[in-house]
Automatic annotation (TrEMBL):
Organism domain of life: Eukaryota
Family: Belongs to the SEC10 family.
InterPro entries in UniProt: Sec10-like (IPR009976), Sec10_HB (IPR048627), Sec10_N (IPR048625)
Polar residues biased stretches: 64-82
GO cellular component terms, semicolon-separated: exocyst
GO biological process: exocytosis; Golgi to plasma membrane transport
Keyword terms of this UniProt record: Coiled coil, Exocytosis, Transport
Record's protein name: Exocyst complex component Sec10
Residues annotated as domain Exocyst complex component Sec10 N-terminal: 102-218
Domain Exocyst complex component Sec10-like alpha-helical bundle: 224-835
Originating organism: Nepenthes gracilis (Slender pitcher plant)
Stretches for region Disordered: 1-25, 59-88
């Protein structure tokens, strides 16, 4: 409510409250304007009741001050009790609790009536406003309809105008095209007239170039003259060609044809003269380094055969192609002075320096070419091609002279290997040169393909040279080893006769793992060259397979020869043993000499045994080196091509089969050597009384016999080399065969002796000793046989009547046990034959 309206209500309320006791309240005066703006019902209500309820007027100011209202009490009707009210309540409750209620009720009734009247006024006003708004809305809609109609008309006018403008523009464009076409035709006609005039000048008389227009002799208009001359020449040659085709059907055009031929000839002469003049000017500008003049001449010369003559002329006149001293300097830089030894490392350094110089030169020429020629890429292609075909090829021809496979250079001069190393160095460095030239820019020239063509003659039969080189290296190495062997043999200290126990194989050179490693190193170098020269996987796999086969052949031959040499020692030792086998009827002196020689032969056999085991061990190490090399270096190069890897694996197995066969034969000879020495020791050391002690009252000796001790000591000593050299299945097979042979030899040996019970105990002690030793073989079948021997030895210990129960658990050895029983010293006296026949009838 507005402030003015609130003040009016207050003044009216004061007058009303002063007369409320005697008269009815007059109507309230409420103005509609009081309800506009920031109207507050609380303010209106407060102004109505403030005169009747003073405590309501003070409520806003007293509610926040508790110290001021602390003495007032709140009445049940919501009014505050003042101190005077408290006194009145102390006097009694004779007065009503809310005496202003009647005045308030009357006030509210009057206010409601006034408000209803105001509502009626407001409703009337609202109706009037709605009618006015409706009238204005109708007018507005009518105006909008008229505006929309006018806008549509305006758009139609714009559309017609746009269509008209477009039509006018198309007409203007057509007129412009016609004008442009007419102008072009006029220009073409003018040029044609000029060309015909110039053509008539050239067609005047053969060889006469003196009566030509000033255009063709003006140096300032050389470019224009060259362009016109080329057009005339093209037209004349084309016309001559057409006339020539028509000669076969008609002869009426002979005169015209001859006339144009004159023009063609004169134009050819003029173009040649002009081109030579421009080339001379170009050379002069090149000498003075006048790039602008060179560029101008190059641009004009590009109109003659697309400038090929200028390009070729520029490249051909470069100093590096015409200066002989440059070529000689190239040769000295790479090959050194005449007569000096050439090495791949020196050649590599020389090529690096030379190719760097070439790159620097081409880079400088590239800057000039970019500034002078309209088509620099074509000029660069010609320049790079000339560099590779002339300068690089001339050097490679001197550096790489393909040797003959039938008569290769000797190893003293480097052999085939020197040529291959030079080829690899030159190829690798030239490939780097090609890549650097490509970065400088050479148009559409196939630099890599051109570089490959420089080495095509060398790469055609490269694999054959690589294999021949490996063969030459192998042959030279074998000759070196033979020379070393002969030298060591000549400086030796003696033979078996002078040095007891010396090895018969001392003059035979042993297999060297170092040598095999050198074979692998040769092959690895050759494989690296295969990878360098072979870009296609199939070609690479084929070359690698061929080179690796060389290694297999070398290792196979070297190891097989080494094993065969070691076998020769075993064979010689066996021959010595046979030589000193004597009969029974010899003198004591001869027997002593023979025994001494037999010991020397035995020592030679033991030494040969050790030498062969060393050879087998080194052979196995060599094979392992080759297998590891194949897995690490060769396999990945063969796998991309189907079947090649499997074929190489099969070749590797085949190549090693010869060495395996030699090793197998040698191991059999080793077993024979060991068994021969065991047999000799048993025959020499075993006494007849070892197993049949005399009944002289002396306590029997239950220790192992001296023969057993010697045999076990010998086997322990000699087989130490076998345990070290062999491994895996080879070791198991060898020791199993040796154990079986030892078992058979002992059985045969003990058949020569007679046993009493004490001798049986000693035999059992020998068998136990042998069994303990062969247990180190880790051969279950051999262990079982010696355990059965121990059981059979019991036939010499038990009483005759206990023999029947001795083999109840092991009937398989009953037959061998019968042969043992026959060796008892009481076999005949105890009539054991009859008893055994009754016990084991099937055995009899």
């Amino acid at each position: 409510m507005k402030a003015g309206g609130i003040d009016g209500v207050k003044s009216y309320r004061s007058e009303k409250m002063s007369n409320s006791g005697s008269t009815n309240a007059p109507p309230l005066i409420l103005d509609i304007e009081d309800f506009k703006g920031d109207f507050s019902f609380d303010a209106l209500f407060g102004n109505l009741v403030n005169e009747l309820l003073p405590s309501f007027q003070e409520e806003d100011t007293d509610t926040m001050g508790h110290s001021k209202t602390g003495t007032n009490d709140v009445l049940p009707n919501g009014s505050l009790r003042t101190p005077s009210d408290a006194g009145k309540s102390a006097q009694g409750l004779s007065m009503p609790l809310f005496p202003e209620v009647d005045a308030l009720s009357e006030l509210f009734k009057v206010s409601c009536k006034e408000l209803m009247e105001l509502q009626t006024q407001i409703d009337a006003r609202l109706n009037n406003v709605k009618k006015e708004v409706s009238v204005q809305d109708s007018k507005h809609r009518k105006t909008l309809a008229e505006l929309e109609k006018g806008v549509d008309g305006l758009f139609d006018s714009f559309a017609r105008l746009d269509s008209r403008i477009s039509s006018v523009g198309q007409t203007a464009a057509k007129i412009g095209d016609h004008l442009q076409s007419a102008d072009a035709q006029r220009e073409t006609a003018t040029q044609t007239i000029d060309l015909i005039k110039y053509l008539m000048e050239f067609n005047s008389s053969p060889g006469d170039l003196m009566e030509l227009s000033p255009l063709f002799s003006d140096d300032s208009r050389v470019s224009e003259a060259a362009s016109i001359a080329q057009k005339l020449r093209s037209f004349a040659e084309e016309d001559v060609g057409r006339q020539g085709l028509g000669v076969a059907s008609t002869t009426g055009n002979a005169t015209a044809s001859r006339g144009l031929e004159v023009a063609v000839a004169n134009l050819q002469d003029y173009c040649n003269e002009l081109e030579n003049r421009l080339l001379a000017r170009f050379d002069a500008a090149s000498q003075r380094r006048e790039l602008s003049t060179m560029a101008e001449c190059g641009k004009i010369l590009s109109k003659f055969n697309r400038g090929s003559s200028a390009m070729q002329h520029y490249v051909a006149t470069r100093p590096m192609f015409i200066d002989v001293e440059v070529m000689n300097a190239d040769t000295r830089l790479v090959l050194g002075d005449q007569g000096s030894q050439v090495s791949p490392s020196n050649v590599a350094r020389g090529l690096s320096s030379l190719y760097k110089e070439i790159i620097d030169t081409v880079r400088k020429e590239s800057a000039t070419i970019m500034a002078v020629f309209p088509s620099p890429n074509e000029v660069m292609a010609i320049l790079v091609q000339r560099v590779l075909e002339q300068r690089v090829t001339a050097l490679l021809d001197k550096l790489l002279q393909k040797p003959s496979l039938l008569n290769p250079p000797p190893m003293e001069e480097g052999g085939l290997l020197l040529y291959l190393r030079m080829l690899a160095v030159a190829y690798e460095k030239t490939q780097e040169l090609a890549r650097d030239l490509r970065t400088l820019g050479c148009g559409d020239l196939d630099v890599e393909g051109l570089t490959e063509s420089l080495f095509s003659a060398h790469k055609e039969d490269y694999p054959e040279h690589e294999q021949a080189s490996l063969g030459q290296l192998y042959k030279a190495k074998m000759e070196e080893l033979r020379a070393e062997g002969q030298l060591s043999e000549s400086s030796g200290t003696g033979t078996i006769g002078r040095s007891k126990g010396a090895s018969l194989s001392s003059s035979h050179q042993q297999i060297s793992v170092t040598v095999v490693t050198e074979f692998v190193r040769w092959n690895e170098e050759a494989i690296s060259r295969c990878v360098l020269f072979s870009s296609q996987p199939s070609i690479l796999a084929s070359n690698v397979k061929a080179v690796f086969t060389c290694l297999l052949d070398q290792v196979s031959q070297y190891t097989t020869d080494g094993l065969e040499r070691a076998r020769d020692g075993l064979t010689e030792a066996a021959a010595l043993r046979e030589r000193f086998v004597l009969g029974t009827s010899v003198s004591r002196r001869v027997a002593v000499a023979a025994a001494s020689a037999a010991e020397a032969a035995a020592a030679a056999g033991e030494s040969s045994f050790r030498s062969f085991m060393v050879a087998v061990q080194r052979c196995a190490s060599s094979v392992a080196i080759v297998q590891q090399y194949f897995a690490n270096n060769i396999s990945r190069l063969l796998l991309p091509v189907d079947g090649v890897h499997a074929a190489s694996c099969e070749e590797m197995a085949t190549a090693m089969s010869s060495a395996e066969a030699a090793a197998y034969k040698g191991l059999q000879q080793c077993i024979d050597t060991v068994m021969a020495e065991v047999e000799r020791l048993l025959s020499v050391e075993q006494k007849s009384t070892d197993y049949r002690s005399p009944d002289d009252g002396i306590a029997p000796d239950h220790r192992q016999t001296n023969a057993c001790t010697r045999v076990v000591a010998y086997l322990s000593r000699v087989l130490e080399a076998a345990f070290t050299a062999l491994e895996g299945l080879n070791k198991q097979a060898f020791l199993t065969e040796l154990g079986n042979r030892l078992h058979k030899l002992l059985l045969s040996h003990w058949q020569k002796y007679t046993f009493n019970p004490s001798g049986g105990l000693r035999l059992k002690r020998d068998i136990t000793e042998y069994g303990e030793f062969v247990r180190s073989f880790n051969a279950p079948s051999v262990d079982e046989k010696f355990e059965l021997l121990g059981i059979m030895a019991n036939v010499f210990i038990v009483a005759p009547e206990s023999l029947s129960t001795l083999f109840e658990g092991t009937p398989s050895i009953r037959k061998d046990a019968q042969r043992f029983i026959q060796l008892r010293d009481d076999y005949k006296s105890a009539k054991l034959a009859a008893k055994l026949s009754s016990l084991w009838p099937s055995s009899s």
